[in-house]
Each structure stands twice: as structure tokens, then as C-alpha cells.
């Protein structure tokens, strides 16, 4: 796989957001992604704007800010590799979905910079390592789904800061330790699933 570059354009999406997308593409074997419709605007030979050119899986608001990155919910894009730290440059994201891919390595700590996130789904990958404590900075989260991965270590106590959560799913990981009492602070929680994790304490999988 060879790297792609992004050059500055007049107006449109910010340069930092375009650089973040290209870093993701290069880190996750983008040349072999399964692009719906077979068109890959991510690798056009001329500079293109992710919002104006409607790059596959990218959603934007009326100001050409990237608010959604959906590379999994409708079909797997076939991402392989680790999520790059550059993901933290996409600070306008409200929805981040890498459902059913082949991602490996840990969740980068820079995930904590995405403070506008309302939904984070990394279901069905091979992501490893602990759940970063920086997840507690995502106080706008309403849905957090990390099920069917290989996360290890305890559930961070910072989870209690996510008071807008309605759904929390860590099903089928290798989490250990006790369920933090801070989960009791999640008064909007309607669904909690910690099944197939080696954790101790009372909870309801529903």
C-alpha cells in the first residue's frame, strides 16, 4: 500500500479534517477497502473535498464540517490495522461507526478529543488493550458500543462521567475487575450489557 496525500483547497472542509481522513485511509489498508458502488473518492488523483465530493461513509453539516464517519453500519468497508491517533483531529464528529471490520491495536487516547460524539460503535473488530480513561471526556455520548473485541483490564471509573448514556455495551471482551460503582451515576442508562466479560458485581444485561 502506498500513502496518499491531501493538499489544501479553497474553502470547504478544513485541511486538518482531510488530513485525518487520509491518515485513517493509509493506516487501515484503504487501497483494499470495499467501497460501496466501487467509487473511491478518497483516492482521487486531483484534490477533492470530502464533503463536496461526498466521500463514501463521510457525512457533513451545512458548513462542510465532518460530523459523521460511518465505515461499517451498512456494510463492512474491510478496514485492517489500527485506528490512527489522527482520529482526534475530527473534532466535529457526532457519529463514529467502524462496525464489523478488522481493526486491531488499542483505541487511541486521542479519542477523548472528540467531545461532540453522541454515538461511538466499534463492534466486531479485534481491538485490544484497555478502554482508555479519556473515554470519560465524551460527555455528549448517548451510545457506546465496544462489544465483540479483545479489550482487557478494568472498566474505567471515568465511565461515570458519561451521564447522557442511554446504551452501554461491552459484551464479549476480556475485561476484568469489578464493575465500578460510578456506573450508578448513569441515570439515563436504559441498556447495559457486560456479558462474557470477567467482571464482578451486580448488573442487568438487557
Strand-helix topology:
Blueprint: H1 15-27, E1 58-60, E2 66-70, E3 80-82, E4 95-97, E5 102-105, E6 119-121, E7 126-129, E8 143-145, E9 150-153, E10 167-169, E11 174-178, E12 191-193, E13 198-200
Parallel strand pairs: 2-4, 3-5, 4-6, 5-7, 6-8, 7-9, 8-10, 9-11, 10-12, 11-13
Antiparallel strand pairs: 1-2
How widely separated are the two ends? 43 Å
Oligomer: single chain
Mean pLDDT: 88
- Gross geometry: globular
Amount of helix: under 10%
Strand order of the largest sheet: 1-2-4-6-8-10-12
Secondary-structure element order, as H and E?
HEEEEEEEEEEEEE
Structural class: mainly beta
Low-confidence stretches are 1-10, 202-206
Overall description:
The chain is mainly beta. 6% of the residues lie in helices and 22% in strands. The protein is built from one helix and 13 strands. It has one helix at residues 15-27; strands at residues 58-60, 66-70, 80-82, 95-97, 102-105, 119-121, 126-129, 143-145, 150-153, 167-169, 174-178, 191-193, 198-200. The strands form two sheets. It has a seven-stranded mixed sheet, with no helix packed on it. It has a six-stranded parallel sheet with strand order 3-5-7-9-11-13, with no helix packed on it. It is globular, with a radius of gyration of 17 Å. Residues 1-10 and 202-206 have low confidence and may be disordered.
Amino acid at each position: 500500500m502506498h500513502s496518499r496525500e491531501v493538499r489544501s483547497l479553497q474553502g470547504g472542509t478544513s485541511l486538518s479534517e482531510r488530513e485525518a481522513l487520509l491518515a485513517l485511509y493509509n493506516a487501515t489498508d484503504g487501497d483494499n477497502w470495499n467501497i460501496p458502488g466501487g467509487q473511491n473518492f478518497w483516492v482521487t488523483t486531483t484534490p477533492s473535498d470530502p464533503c463536496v465530493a461526498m466521500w463514501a461513509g463521510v457525512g457533513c453539516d451545512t458548513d462542510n464540517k465532518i460530523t459523521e464517519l460511518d465505515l461499517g453500519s451498512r456494510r463492512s468497508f474491510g478496514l485492517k490495522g489500527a485506528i490512527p491517533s489522527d482520529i482526534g483531529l475530527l473534532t466535529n464528529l457526532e457519529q463514529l461507526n467502524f462496525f464489523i471490520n478488522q481493526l486491531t491495536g488499542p483505541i487511541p487516547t486521542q479519542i477523548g478529543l472528540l467531545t461532540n460524539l453522541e454515538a461511538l460503535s466499534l463492534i466486531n473488530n479485534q481491538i485490544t488493550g484497555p478502554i482508555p480513561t479519556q473515554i470519560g471526556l465524551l460527555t455528549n455520548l448517548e451510545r457506546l458500543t465496544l462489544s465483540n473485541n479483545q479489550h482487557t483490564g478494568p472498566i474505567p471509573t471515568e465511565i461515570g462521567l458519561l451521564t447522557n448514556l442511554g446504551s452501554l455495551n461491552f459484551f464479549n471482551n476480556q475485561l476484568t475487575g469489578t464493575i465500578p460503582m460510578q456506573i450508578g451515576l448513569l441515570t439515563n442508562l436504559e441498556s447495559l450489557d457486560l456479558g462474557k466479560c470477567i467482571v464482578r458485581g451486580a448488573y442487568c444485561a438487557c
